[in-house]
Sequence to fold (107 residues):
Amino acid sequence: MTDDLQKLRKINAKTFRKAKNWYLGYVISQFAVLAFAVTSIFTDVNPKLNAAIVFLGVLTTELIRWRSDSWKSQGESAKRKWEMADGFGVSVDGKGIADWLASNASV
Fold:
């Protein structure tokens, strides 16, 4: 059981780390879109082109945030399983861990 708890702890750490990395990308992309929007005010560029570029930037930013939230929810799920197993002695489902690892092979 301790081996399964260690696996859950590693999953928890990796998923939260990935969520933080994606969130950092989200913040950086927000600043990039804001910087582009501010500089486009002071430059002589086609307003329709500016609007299209900013719109695509905002969509990209939200996709990055969605990915961060996805990793965060997976990390919270692993954390809840780990807390149940560690606190109450509930057995950890090895099949569930294997399924998660197989579906997230890049982790």
Remarks:
- The radius of gyration is 20 Å.
- Residues 2-103 form one domain.
- Helices lie at 2-42, 47-88, 94-103.
